[in-house]
Design brief:
Number of domains: 3
Largest sheet: 8 strands, parallel
Strand order of the largest sheet: 12-6-4-3-2-1-14-13
CATH topology of the largest domain: TIM Barrel
Number of strands: 14
Oligomer: single chain
Distance between the termini: 33 Å
Shape: globular
Strand content: 5-15%
Length: 532
C-alpha cells in the first residue's frame, strides 16, 4: 500500500484510541512500509507467483532465463541482493539457491560434513528463515534511508524533492526473491519429506528441489556410490511436497525433480511392476543381470526377475545393492524426467559430470518429444574444472574441424602456459556464453552455482591472512578491503548502519521521543565515512 494510504489509515485508527496519543501515525506507517512481509508464508506466496511468471516468460523467450548463487548465511544472501540492485537496478530473474552441500559443510552442529544427508534436517528451514530475515532487513535498511531523506526534504520545505522520494518509497523493489531450496532426498520416508517440506515452506520457500536417491544412502551428485530409487518411491515424495504446498495455501509452489541417474550405477530395490511396460518394468529393464536357462542357474538367495520376456538373475553386490547396465545412464535420465513431469514436478535437474551443452541438449530434446515445455534447473557446479573442460571442448572441436592442434597438449590444457593462447581465449568466450547458449539450446530455465560463496569466503580470507600476518600488516586490510569498499560503494563500509544501528536509533525516537539515547551521534566513528 502506498505510504500516503498507510498514513491516512493509521491516522484514522489512532484517533479511535485516545490513550495511544504518544504514537505518531507517520512512525507507524513507516514501520509498516519497512516490513513488507509479515510471515514466511507471505514470502512463499509472493515468490511463487514471481517464479511462475518467470517460467512462463522463459517459455516465450529463452533469453529470459534466471540465475542464482548458493548462499550459506543470511548476510551473504543479503549482500548479494544489495549488490544486484546496485549494479543492475532490479532483482528481476535473480534468485537465491539454498545448497544442501553448504548446509552440511557449514551449518551442522556436528561440524563440517560431506553432502550425505547426515546434518540436522531442521538446519535447512532454519537457513531459509535466516536468509529471508536478512533480506527483509535489507528492505528496512534501504527504506529507512529513504524515509530519513523524506523527513529532511519535508523539514527543508522542498515539496518537489519530498514527492520524488515518496514515489521512490512507493515504488520500492524488495530484496526478497525466490529461493530454490534443496531438500536432498527428503531425509526419510514420505511422511518425513512432507513434514520437512512444510517447515521449509513456512520459512518462505516457494520452490523445493528433491532428488531420486535413496535417502539413507544419499551422496553428493558429484560423488561416487549414488543409489537411485524406483519411480513409485520418488513420485510419492513429489506428492508429499505438493500436498505440503497445497495445505499451506501456496497453490503455485514449484517442485524441481532432480535425477542423479546419469552418474548412479546402483539401485537398492527392484521396482514393483504390475504389467509389461509400466514404470516399474521400465526401471527393472535397466538392471544388469544374467539370463537364466534352467533352475540350476539359480543359487541360494538369488533374486529372479522377468526382463523383456526372459528370466534374469540381477547382479547383486555384497552390499545388497543391484547394478544397472553399463551405459544406460542417459536413457534412465530421460525416463526419470518424463515420469517426474507427468506426475507433478514442474522443473527438472539433471546432474551431469561436465558442463557440455551438446550432452545436456541431447537429453532435453528427447524429453521434449513427450513434454514439449520441459525446463531445467542446472548446476554450474564448482565440482567441474571449468577451465580444463572448456579448453578441451575447444581442442576437440578444432581437431574435428581438421585445425592444427599440435601446439597443445590436451591433458595439460589447465596449465598457465596456455592462458594467453588463442585456444584459451576462445574457451573463455564459450564459458562467458555458456548460460545464454544453454538456455537457448538445452532448455535451461535456471542457472545456479551451488557453493560459490563457500569458495569466495575461503579465497578472500586466504588473501587477507597472507597479507595481514605478513609484511603488509594493516595495509593488507586497508588496501584490499576498506579502500575498495569505499571506492566501489560497498554499503558495509558503514557497518554499524548495515547492521541496523540507524534503524534502531529511529525506533528509539519513535518509542521515547526526545528522551531516546541514540548511538549515531558525533562520537560514532562511522561519521568518518559520512561522505563516501
Amino acid at each position: 500500500m502506498p505510504y500516503a494510504n498507510e498514513l491516512d489509515a493509521l491516522t484514522s485508527l489512532l484517533k479511535q484510541h485516545p490513550t495511544w496519543g504518544a504514537i505518531k501515525p507517520e512512525y507507524a506507517a513507516r514501520m509498516r512500509i519497512q516490513n513488507k512481509f509479515k510471515t514466511g508464508l507471505d514470502i512463499a506466496k509472493y515468490t511463487a507467483k514471481i517464479m511462475r511468471e518467470d517460467m512462463a516468460n522463459y517459455d516465450q523467450d529463452s533469453s529470459k532465463y534466471t540465475q542464482s548463487l548458493g548462499c550459506w548465511h543470511g548476510f551473504i544472501g543479503q549482500q548479494k541482493m544489495i549488490s544486484i540492485k546496485k549494479h543492475f537496478g532490479s532483482t528481476e530473474r535473480k534468485y537465491l539457491y539454498l545448497s544442501g552441500w553448504m548446509v552440511a559443510a557449514l551449518r551442522s552442529q556436528f561440524g563440517p560434513l560431506p553432502d550425505q544427508s547426515m546434518h540436522e534436517k531442521t538446519a535447512v528451514p532454519d537457513l531459509i528463515t535466516e536468509l529471508y530475515t536478512f533480506l527483509r532487513q535489507a528492505d528496512a535498511w534501504e527504506l529507512n534511508h529513504l524515509f530519513r531523506d523524506l523527513e529532511a526534504a519535508q523539514e527543508a520545505g522542498d515539496k518537489q524533492q519530498a514527492q520524488a522520494i515518496q514515489a521512490s518509497i512507493d515504488q520500492h523493489q524488495t530484496h526478497v526473491v525466490p529461493i530454490i531450496a534443496d531438500i536432498d532426498a527428503g531425509f526419510g520416508n514420505d511422511e518425513a519429506t512432507y513434514l520437512l517440506a512444510k517447515k521449509m515452506i513456512e520459512a518462505g520457500a516457494c520452490c523445493i528441489q528433491l532428488e531420486n536417491q535413496v535417502s539413507d544412502e544419499k551422496q553428493c551428485g558429484h560423488q561416487d556410490g549414488k543409489v537411485t530409487v524406483p519411480h513409485a518411491d520418488f513420485l510419492s515424495k513429489i506428492n508429499a511436497v505438493r500436498l505440503a504446498f497445497l495445505e499451506l495455501g501456496v497453490d503455485d509452489g514449484v517442485i524441481v525433480a532432480r535425477t542423479d541417474s546419469l552418474g548412479a550405477g546402483l539401485t537398492k530395490q527392484i521396482a514393483v511392476t504390475n504389467e509389461p511396460g509400466d514404470l516399474g518394468d521400465q526401471y527393472n529393464s535397466f538392471i544388469d543381470g544374467d539370463i537364466i536357462h534352467n533352475a540350476d542357474d539359480i543359487n541360494n538367495g538369488d533374486v529372479v526377475i522377468k526382463q523383456n520376456g526372459q528370466l534374469v538373475k540381477p547382479k547383486r553386490l555384497a552390499s545388497g545393492l543391484f547394478q544397472f547396465k553399463e551405459g544406460s545412464g542417459e536413457d534412465r535420465v530421460v525416463m526419470d524426467c518424463i515420469a517426474s513431469l507427468q506426475h507433478g514436478a514442474d522443473l527438472l535437474w539433471i546432474e551431469t559430470e561436465k558442463p557440455h551443452i551438446g550432452q545436456i541438449a541431447a537429453m532435453v530434446n528427447r524429453i521434449r518429444q513427450q513434454v514439449p515445455n520441459a525446463k531445467l534447473v542446472y548446476n554450474n557446479s564448482p565440482s567441474f574444472n571449468w577451465t580444463l573442460n572448456f579448453r578441451q571442448q575447444v581442442y576437440d572441436a578444432w581437431a574435428a574441424e581438421g585445425k592444427e592442434v599440435s601446439a597443445y597438449d590436451r591433458a595439460r590444457l589447465m596449465s598457465a602456459d596456455y592462458d594467453d593462447s588463442e585456444l584459451s581465449q576462445l574457451a573463455d568466450q564459450w564459458m562467458a556464453n555458456f548460460q545464454r547458449e544453454s538456455a537457448r539450446e538445452a532448455g535451461i530455465f535456471h542457472h545456479l552455482i551451488t557453493l560459490p560463496t563457500y569458495h569466495t569466503a575461503a579465497l578472500s580470507t586466504d588473501n587477507l591472512a597472507k597479507g595481514y600476518f605478513g609484511e603488509q600488516g594493516m595495509l593488507a586490510y586497508v588496501k584490499d578491503v576498506q579502500r575498495k569498499e569505499i571506492r566501489e560503494g560497498i554499503a558495509t563500509v558503514k557497518h554499524q548502519d548495515m547492521a541496523g544501528s540507524n534503524i534502531g536509533d529511529d525506533h528509539k525516537e519513535f518509542f521515547a521521543g526526545e528522551a531516546a539515547l541514540k548511538a549515531g551521534g558525533k562520537d560514532n566513528t562511522m561519521g568518518q565515512f559520512e561522505n563516501v
